[in-house]
Amino acid sequence: MVVWRGVGPCGCPVCWCFAVYCDMRNELLAWFAREGLLLHDVVTSAEDPQHDGVKVTVKAPIVALSHASDDFRECPDPVLFGYPESCLELMNLEDFHSFVLQWFEQAVAAGMGRCFVCNQMLDTGTEKPWDAVFVSHDMFCWLLVHFDCKRYLNRDLKGRNPFEVTLHPPEFFDLRLT
What we know:
It is a single chain. This protein is of the alpha/beta class. It has one domain. The protein contains four helices and eight strands, in the order ββαββββααββα. The strands form two sheets. Strands 1-2-4-3 form a four-stranded mixed sheet, with no helix packed on it. A four-stranded mixed sheet has the order 6-5-8-7, with helices on one face. The chain is globular. The two termini are 37 Å apart.
C-alpha cells in the first residue's frame, strides 16, 4: 500500500492511501491501466476530523472459474506462464483475451471450470459448448458460461461487487508459446 500525506485543497491535512490488493507485477498493473481496465473504490473516513483520510483501492481484472466465492482468481500474468518479458508491450486487449482463453481451456481440461450461470462442470467436448466472456460493466472479469446460459448472465452478475471478492492466485498451466 502506498500512503501519501499532504494538505488538501482547503488547507486541512489529508492522508491518501492507495491500496492495491494483489501480488500482481507492476508491469501488468501498468498494462491494465493503459487499457483502462483498473477499477477504483474511494472511501473517506469522517469519524475523526483530526485524522481525515481518503482510501483509494485499485482493482485489476479478475477471472472466475465459477460463481462460487472460492473460485475467483487474480488475473494470470502472461510472463509468469512462459511468455517473453516484453509480451505486454506488444499485446492489445484481444491478445490478452486469447491468453485468458488459453488459461481457461487448461482449467476446464483439469476439471476446474463451471458455468457461471448453471454451475455445471464444463468439459472440452462439443455436446454443451461454452465460452469465456469478458464482463466490462460494473466490474472487469473473465468468466466461463455455456452458450445457452449467456442470456441469464446479467441476472447472475447483478449485485456482485469486485471489491468484496476474495481472490486466490491463478493455477499454473504450461501456456508457453511454441
